[in-house]
Fold these 3 entries.
Entry 1:
Amino acid sequence: MNRERALRTLGLEKGARADDINRAYRALIRQAHPDAGGSTAVAARITEAYHWLQRADTQSPPPPRAPQPDQPSPAPTDDSMTLLLPPGDVFIRLVEAGHQLGEVSYIDRDAGIVQVTFTADNGVVCQLAATVVSSGRATSRGDARVEFTLDPLASGQAPPIESVVNRLARMMVSSG
């Protein structure tokens, strides 16, 4: 997500100030929240845009660095991946890729959890849960691990988790 997309999600113009962002968020979330009859996916997008703008307004811009490809590397198991990015950046990419894969049905930024409901190629509705954790290895650019679980929500067979993880990884790399 970038500033322009976040502002557009909240229905705001380029020069919006913090109080404009807060007002727009409160008005939109009242309508879109699932408890008010709204969509979980829409509420998640609104919340993600709002949090992205809050972070962007409170953080100083990162120092410039040479672009380097951030390729997820296969982990020892088929249900995880590691990216050489800070966990917060991985979380943002994960949410954006989740919107491409299906409907983001749950977000918990503090716990690093994103759940995505999607229809697999075989027609089975599935839920992918992803948790972003720091790998514990300190690098100059960061190092985060994403662990996944995949469950069918209806009768039928979920696709192999490694194929879903690989597809999501490609989306995450292209969103950066």
Entry 2:
Amino acid sequence: MSTLYIMRHGDAISRAATDAERPLSDLGQGDAASMVPCLLQRPPQTIWVSPYLRAQQTAAIVVTGLVQAGFKPKVETVSGITPEDNPYKLVDLLADVTDGPLMLVSHNPFVSTLLSLLTEGHSQARIGMVTASIACLDGEVNGMGTMALQWYKTPSDQAT
């Protein structure tokens, strides 16, 4: 793999029956849609998405935007990328991925820690990913700290 996009889900409502069932707010839906242009130069071929509702909704909005632009990524729901999961385990899985670009749609603290592990080689997140933000990394996952951050964009960047 040479390109990996890491996206945090859009803004979600604060309460639901369970954390996994929290849907996106109207703001979160708009923010997710605003991020699609960031992906059009090199769109993801595959999107791995957390099973939580807000991540599923974010991925669906991104896929709709990509399809409207003429791209059709494959979407896979992946357990192990929820807020409580261990990002160290995903680093090992990513090392086996040969197709790309790949996009992950997940949650904090998972995404911020994963970004740090892949680019810095440690778990002290330098970038605390805001809702609907995307980090673009390049390189091969040969262990911790083996990818380079190409860019990090937020919905407020898209508004300017």
Entry 3:
Amino acid sequence: MVSFLLIISFLLHLITLVAIFQLLKKGQQLENTANSAELTAALERSLEEIKAENDRLQALMTNHKASSVEQKNQKEESQQPAEQVPAHQPESEEADADVDRLLGDAPGYELEASLESRVMQLHAKGLTIEEIAKELDCGKTEAELIIRLYDE
């Protein structure tokens, strides 16, 4: 009778340990899901900031092109005898300086593509995630995450 009770006790302990292990495993999965949701939200915020910066750069580029066209027209007008030559606007000089700084025309400034842009360029060429990660010396998960974010 005692041996029967010991066997039942052993089985109950074994079942309890398995149940505890399963609960811990579920808890870790839920925690990972929460962490991935936070990471996704942070990456989306970063993406929005990058898009805002790109829009600002695009606006500066448009202003820069417009001022270049105005300067070209001014040169043409100065070559022809004209009664009035419009004065150069100081606002366009500031815009030119901003564009030069952003585009890397400033002396000693080197423009380097971001990891995201390099990943997307290699992905567009048809390389696999493993090949991209190997070439850029980054993690496979990081490359895959960048591709997923930008392919939306």
